Amino acid sequence: MRETDTPAMEGLKAGLRKESRKAGLDFEKLKSGGFIKQTQKDLFTVRLRCPGGKVSADRLRKAAEIAEKYGQGEAHISVRQSVEIPYVSYKHFDAANAALAEVGWSVASCGPRIRVPTACAGCTYNPNGITDTQGVCAEVDRRYFGTATGHHKFKISFSGCPIDCFRTREMDLGFQGVMEPELREGLCTGCELCVKSCEENALRMENELPIRDLSKCNQCGDCVKVCPVDAMVRKRVGWLARVGGKHGKHPYVAYEVANFLSNDQVYALIEKTVEWYKPFGQGRERIGVTIERLGLDSYLDQVVAPLGLEAIRDPKERRKYYTRGNFYGV
Amino acid sequence: MAYEGDRPMPDARLDLRGVLCPINFVQAKLKLEEMEVGQVLEVVLDDGEPMRNVPRSIKEEGQRIIDVGKLPDSTYRLLVRKDTE
Question: Is A228 in Cβ contact with B55 (below 8 Å)?
Fold first, then answer.
C-alpha cells in the first residue's frame, strides 16, 4: 500500500503538475513511454528500446545522430542494456521520435509495466550458452513489452547457462538455460575429462564410469561439452524459471519454481504470472513482495501447477543453487 | 603408425606445463595447424584450469582426444589426433 507522501514529496509532485500544465505535457504519461524527466528544467533522457541489448550498426549511428543534434553528444548504456540519450529538450520529442522511426526504432517503457527484457548472447555465439536467449528475449519483447501490471515494474531476463550473467535471481521472472546430461556407457573410454571439467564436483569415477551426484549437478553441460567420444551427451535442454527477485533498497533473491521449460512454456508462464499478479498484488508492490505476503505455495499452486510445468516445490531442491558464497539466511 | 602398447606414438610433442590459458590452447592449435590430418600430437598440460579448458577447446576445433593419462608430477598427457583441417 502506498504510504502518505511526506511534505517534501507532496511539494515535488505539485511542482511537477504545475510544470506539466505549463508545458502542455503529461509527465506521468511521458514516463510511461521512455522519456525520463531530468534534474534540469525541460530536459529528458530518452531511453531506447534494445531487447537483449542487441543494436544494429544503423541504429547505433542513429543514436549518435540524435545525441549530437538534440542531446549533448553522448549516450549512456544503462544496466538494462538500453542506449539512453540524456539532455534532450521536450521541444525535440517529435523530431527525435521521427528520427528513431527512420530505423524502425522506439523508446522503452517505465512505470508499472513489463520492461524491455534483457539477455546474454546465449548459444548464438557464446560456447557456454545452452539456450537461445536472444531469440526468446526478442519474442518476449514483441509479445509482452509495455504490458501494464497494475502495480509496479516487471523485469524479465534470460541467461544462457548457470553462470547467469543476466542475474535471473534478481528478476521478477528470470529464465536460465540448463542442460541435462546422460551417459552412453558403451562409448565411455574412462578418460575422466568430464570429471575434470565439473566445477561442482558432481561427477566421480566408479568402476571406470562417471557417476553423477544429482544433488550437486547444476546442469551446466560442461561434461557434455568436453567429452571427446560423445559418450556424455545432452538428454535435453530447457529453461530454469525463477520468480520474485528484485534489486533496489530492499533486494530479494528469486525462487527457483520450475525446471526445463520449453520456449512455449516460458511465454505461458509470463502470461499466467502477470494475470495472477494483477488481482493478487496490492498497491505498488513488486511480485516478490506479493509472494512473500501470500506464500510461495499460492504461486506454485495457482500459476505453476496449472501449466503442467516440472515444478520445484521442495526448498531443499533449491539449496544446490546457493551452496557457495554467503547467501545468509538460506 | 607406430604404437606404444595400444596408444599411437605421437608425431609431435608439446610441453605446455606452466603455460597459462589461453596461450596453451593457442600453441596447441598452431602446432596442429602445421600437421597433417591423421597425425597425432602429444600435449602435456597442468592440472586445474588448463585441464578444464584446453580439451574442450580442442574438441570445439574438431580435433580428437584419443588418450588422457596422468603423469607422476600430477600433470596430464593428452594424445590429440588431427581430424579436421
Answer: yes
